[in-house]
Structure formats: structure tokens, C-alpha cells
Design brief:
The chain has helices at about 15-25, 25-35, 45-60, 65-75, 90-110, 160-175, 200-220, 245-254, and strands at about 15, 115-125, 130-140, 145-150, 180-185, 190-195. About 45% of the residues lie in helices and about 20% in strands.
Length: about 250
């Protein structure tokens, strides 16, 4: 249904949905990820990961009664414990847990689809030392196929479409069927957004991935930067200290 091209030769690349989205926001920030420069986990990122753990627990075991207790269990048994420095002092950690439980409480108020699979990890070896991978929050079985569902802690942003298209492509490559819907749901606003999953749309995503591989490998071999696209994501960029455009953007946003 979808054919992948031969990729520009170079070092092995593992492209996840998040690194793909990051590259689409700012190629140079995406390049830093592939170079192994990840930066520190942000407070917002830490809370978002905890929220997703609570949602996964809910979808697997049912409604959580003692949310704070389960939140602390998730922190103690996952990498969230390693990243506690992103949150701060003990009092800051308590506030972060409280914020996460408030988001989970809003999630419980939303109508939710019936899911046939939860937290689905899909990996596809695309050839030429390129691996594509993604973890989808849930799969909903429809009468005419499946819908890929992804919950967002905050509002649905324009760049979300890149992540959803990446998920759709992974599904076609590994499950050999075209999703009937790619659905993002905002816990903050209750908004639901559907994105196209046509063959033409996914073929365009293949072209973007091929361009990403070419640009990243060329830059890595030549030790060169890529174009910079400043935006709100600059706040969490691991190479912000060396990016004048990013620093100016943060200054304006502040």
C-alpha cells in the first residue's frame, strides 16, 4: 500500500513520532536529538508523562480511586523517579502531583472511545539503517477499520497533525491496513480533532521522512547546523544557549 524509498546513506537513525514532530517544528532542534543532545526533562514534560501513566492505568484497570497513591506508585516504579530533579523540591513535587491528578480528573469527565488495544508500540525497520517507532495511546475498533487515538494534556496544536500522520504511516507499514481515523483528544479543552489518513497523505509523510533522513545525515556527516524555526518549543530546546533566534523568541514570549 505504501512503499518506502531508499534513504540517503549515513549513520543509523531511530525516528520516533516525537522526534519527527520536533524536526517538523525546528529542523535544527530535531538534529540535536539525533546527535544525542536531549536536554533536561521540563516540569511540564514530567507532569505530562505522569498524566499518561495515570491514563494508561485507568484504561487497563479501571477508574483510579486513590489518585495520589497511584501517582506516587507510578513515580516510584518508572523513569519518572529518575527525572524528579525536573520538578524541584519536595513541596514542588507535591504540587506537580496535584496538577497531574487534576488533569486526570478532567480526563475522567470526558466521553471516551471503546479501545481494543492500549499503549500500542509499533516499530518498523525501514531499511538503510532507518527505524521508525511510535507508541499510540489507544486503538479503537470501528465497523470499517481502526481509529488511532492519542490524548493531549494541553490544547491540540497545528503540529499535532505531523505526529498523527506518523502514527498512521507506522500502522500501514506494520499492520498493512489504512486507519479510518487519526484522532487527537485534548484533556484540557475536550476538543477532538480528526486528521486525514489517506494513502496520498501518508505518501507525503514518507517524502518528509526521506527529506529528514537526508538532511540529518548530511548535517551529521558534515557537522553542520540545519535551519532554525523559532517558536514556543524553543523554551525546551537543548541547544538554546547557542541559538540567537531561539533566545530572542523566548525573550519575546516572556
Amino acid at each position: 500500500m505504501i512503499e518506502l524509498p531508499s534513504f540517503t546513506p549515513g549513520p543509523p537513525l531511530v525516528i520516533s513520532a516525537s522526534s519527527f514532530q520536533r524536526f517538523m517544528q525546528c529542523p535544527d532542534q530535531g538534529l540535536s536529538h539525533f546527535r544525542g543532545i536531549y536536554g533536561k526533562t521540563s516540569r511540564e514534560g514530567w507532569i505530562g508523562q505522569l498524566v499518561h501513566r495515570l491514563i494508561a492505568r485507568d484504561l487497563t484497570d479501571g477508574r483510579i480511586k486513590d489518585i495520589e497513591l497511584v501517582a506516587r506508585m507510578e513515580i516510584g516504579s518508572t523513569h519518572l523517579n529518575i527525572d524528579l530533579a525536573a520538578v524541584g523540591k519536595p513541596s514542588d513535587i507535591r504540587r506537580a502531583i496535584s496538577e497531574a491528578t487534576e488533569v486526570y480528573a478532567r480526563f475522567c469527565e470526558l466521553p471516551r472511545p471503546e479501545l481494543s488495544e492500549i499503549e500500542v508500540t509499533v516499530v518498523h525497520h525501514a531499511g538503510d539503517d532507518v527505524t521508525l517507532k511510535g507508541r499510540m495511546d489507544g486503538i479503537q475498533q470501528m465497523s470499517d477499520g481502526v481509529a488511532i487515538v492519542d490524548w493531549k494534556k494541553g490544547p491540540i496544536r497545528p503540529e499535532t497533525r505531523h505526529q498523527m500522520a506518523f502514527y498512521g504511516l507506522l500502522w500501514v507499514l506494520e499492520r498493512h491496513s489504512l486507519p479510518v481515523d487519526l484522532q487527537a483528544i485534548s484533556i484540557q479543552t475536550g476538543e477532538r480533532a480528526s486528521f486525514p489518513a489517506t494513502v496520498a497523505d501518508l505518501e507525503r509523510t514518507v517524502g518528509v521522512i526521506a527529506g529528514l533522513v537526508h538532511d540529518v545525515r548530511t548535517a551529521m556527516i558534515g557537522d553542520e547546523p540545519l535551519p532554525k524555526e523559532p517558536g514556543p518549543w524553543c523554551r525546551y530546546c537543548p541547544v538554546l544557549d547557542t541559538c540567537d533566534e531561539g533566545q530572542e523568541t523566548i525573550s519575546l514570549l516572556a
